[in-house]
């Protein structure tokens, strides 16, 4: 007989030690159930057996009123004494096969899993569900010396579960602000498998208003699940809305880009750019040239305060400065649902850059990642293209479209691969842009400026969306607006302006080209874009 199906959506792990002063555990529990907790695990690290049984018994009594099942952490004896739905065990607790013999065929057994090997074992041993973690650093568990998985590490584990029927929740450092990032960012790269729920301790238990805290978390999980249901059969959409369904044509895309050019001029969004020292001034100038407004703020407190006011944020770690500011700026962009463009300059060139990229990506979910062939190759863990400092070396990828599509799925972000031809994907559609000038290879920071313009158009796309729609109709969307079109617009506007600049008789070399480029970005009209755009849908 199959075991009972649990709803893992909002899985509360209890922790009496986190209660705010004066808050009663049972009162807090009942409020969290009223707020939408779907499953409760009683976790008592310090209680002796008698006390544990008593807490579990009363917990079950309250949960029964709401038809919410209870699991017991680690202790098979407590589970048997109270008659709960099952147990949750860790890697160093009673081995799963032995636990199964002890508790019988009908009880649920969940297992904590920290990596793909442990996941494979959990599948072999027949776990009912796995708890994947820690996703992020957490105050409730000592994870010193172990790497946090981040949303993408969680996604790699989820890939292994596809087709097994084993359910999965993520645990560790999950809070309301990073929940949308986790849900979207952990969609598994190969199979598009997603989490069945999240396990939360302190966001609920430490709250003075556990009902409200649970309601807020539940709303995000439910709308994520609704959005996934609506997307069944179409796996190209992740953390942002996009118009990738059938009927795409060059005309349609160019028309949308033209529309965004007008929005940018009307709205003048503020674009915060944490970028490198080499390009900072040029990046601020190209921002102004297309009608947006630059601010190059890096201080952690300052970027925090600015975040609600900006249209988009760019993080470019070309000279690897301001890591703390980058962490805060990216996290706040996620919290405030602002598009976040990540330019991991020369990420493949050194281990420091690779580690920094991973560290940043464990803090936030980018909306768009842009890089040259070496950078995108490093992010995709491909060895096809080597890096030479900030540049790519060699001939490029054999199949660039496949690389961007796969990386977009893996990272749950729009990917932009630059070079003589640019490739853009949301994990489903791949666009190829063949505009540009060879002079772009002869000025420094052309890739960085392209990233800046993508951020400007991401802000325009968000504004356009919000002008037409109710804000946050779907709470699970990390960012609103069509980010595939935004990335296309940034690349098209930059490369077309570069063609017009290069054609000018007064342009004699990289120096005159550099200033002509800013002028031509300023003068570029939607009509010229219509005439010159060389976009293909692959
Ligand atoms: N040979 C070329 N012909 C046309 N366009 C090009 C050429 N090389 C680069 N581009 C364009 O220049 C922009 C920057 O791309 P590139 O791949 O050179 O970035 P990058 O290597 O990151 O640059 P940087 O490190 O200087 O910032 C893109 O918009 C791309 O389309
Ligand atoms: C030259 C250079 N060095 C670090 S960042 C940068 C700008 C181009 O990426």
From TrEMBL:
One of its GO terms (biological process) is thiamine diphosphate biosynthetic process. Keywords: ATP-binding, Kinase, Magnesium, Metal-binding, Nucleotide-binding, Thiamine biosynthesis, Transferase. GO terms for molecular function: ATP binding; hydroxyethylthiazole kinase activity; magnesium ion binding; thiamine-phosphate diphosphorylase activity. One of its GO terms (cellular component) is cytoplasm. It catalyses: 4-methyl-5-(2-phosphooxyethyl)-thiazole + 4-amino-2-methyl-5-(diphosphooxymethyl)pyrimidine + H(+) = thiamine phosphate + diphosphate; 2-[(2R,5Z)-2-carboxy-4-methylthiazol-5(2H)-ylidene]ethyl phosphate + 4-amino-2-methyl-5-(diphosphooxymethyl)pyrimidine + 2 H(+) = thiamine phosphate + CO2 + diphosphate; 5-(2-hydroxyethyl)-4-methylthiazole + ATP = 4-methyl-5-(2-phosphooxyethyl)-thiazole + ADP + H(+); 2-(2-carboxy-4-methylthiazol-5-yl)ethyl phosphate + 4-amino-2-methyl-5-(diphosphooxymethyl)pyrimidine + 2 H(+) = thiamine phosphate + CO2 + diphosphate. Residues 10-204 form the Thiamine phosphate synthase/TenI domain. Its cofactor is Mg(2+). It holds the Pfam family HK. Pathway: Cofactor biosynthesis; thiamine diphosphate biosynthesis; 4-methyl-5-(2-phosphoethyl)-thiazole from 5-(2-hydroxyethyl)-4-methylthiazole: step 1/1; Cofactor biosynthesis; thiamine diphosphate biosynthesis; thiamine phosphate from 4-amino-2-methyl-5-diphosphomethylpyrimidine and 4-methyl-5-(2-phosphoethyl)-thiazole: step 1/1. Condenses 4-methyl-5-(beta-hydroxyethyl)thiazole monophosphate (THZ-P) and 2-methyl-4-amino-5-hydroxymethyl pyrimidine pyrophosphate (HMP-PP) to form thiamine monophosphate (TMP). In the C-terminal section; belongs to the Thz kinase family. In the N-terminal section; belongs to the thiamine-phosphate synthase family. HAMAP family: Thz_kinase, TMP_synthase. This is Hydroxyethylthiazole kinase.
